[in-house]
Structure formats: C-alpha cells, structure tokens
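Hello forum,

I keep getting stuck at the same step: I have a sequence, I want structure tokens, and every attempt I make locally crashes halfway through. Rather than fight my setup again tonight, could one of you with a working pipeline run this one for me? It's a single chain of 162 residues.
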Amino acid sequence: MTSTPHYGAETTGTEVAQRFTEEMRGKTVLITGISPNSLGETLALTIAAHAPAHLILASRTPSKLQAVKQKLPSSSVTRITLLPLNLASQTSIREAAKKIKPLASHIDVLINNAGVVSSKKQETSEGIELTFGTNHIGHFLLTSLLPNITRIVNVSSLGYKL
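Reply #2:
Ran it on my machine without issues. Output:
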C-alpha cells in the first residue's frame, strides 16, 4: 500500500506538482492573479511543466499576462489562453466567464489565486469594500459562473496575521 506524502509549510509547489504529474497531463487549468515574479507566475510555470492541455491565465493587466506567457515552456502546453479579468468588477468577471465557456467545456482545476490588500478605504465598481469584493466575492462569482469545475483551489496568505 502506497502512503500519501505529508505536505506542510516547507513543501514546495514543485514537489506537489511532481506528485500529481499524471493528474495534470492533458487537463484544463485556469489560474487567476497572473503577474511576473508572483505566486501566479510560479503556479503557471510549475503547472505548465506537467503538460496540461489548456492553460488559461487570468489577470487584470494584459502586459503582465504577456510577460508570464513568454516564460512558459510552450512545448509542454498544448494551448495557452490569456484572459483579461478584473476581480474587482463584476462586469469584468461576467465577461471573462462568457469568454471561457466557448474555450473550455469544463475546467479540471481552477486556482483562485488573485488577491488585493489595501490600507486605505477603496471599493469595487459595485461599491463593495475592495479587499472583500475582490478576494472573496470576485472569486465566488467567477467560480459560480464557470462550467463543470472538477477541482477548486483557493489560495490565501498569512496576511490576516498582520
């Protein structure tokens, strides 16, 4: 009987990805919060190395999406889609979900990674406090609008300890 590896605070994303190589090969993966030198970029690079069929990268900044795409090993990913998405705007979220539906009949893995933290009072375009509206409401709405999601990964931080 094979034992399940123990993952903890010191486990790297690469170690986890290696364990799930077969589960990622040929899958459709959507990652929010893509920008250079970020967790989003690290997720994209790590997952791309394990041959998903379709990698959908979402960010509110198209130039950041392009910068990360340039770093991806194109030989291992069959298809890469760059998706403009501002999680602080429900209109943007609905538009992104509409664009995804014809691209993918299902999402094997959705990684809700994008997040904002603001020390000053800011609001989403709908008047919701920015951090809550983006990090919670935005991802909830996106997730609820997407077709046939097999696995949802919600990324958080230790920011609450501050």
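Residues 89 and 115 are 13 Å apart (CA to CA). If your local run keeps crashing, start a new thread with the error log.
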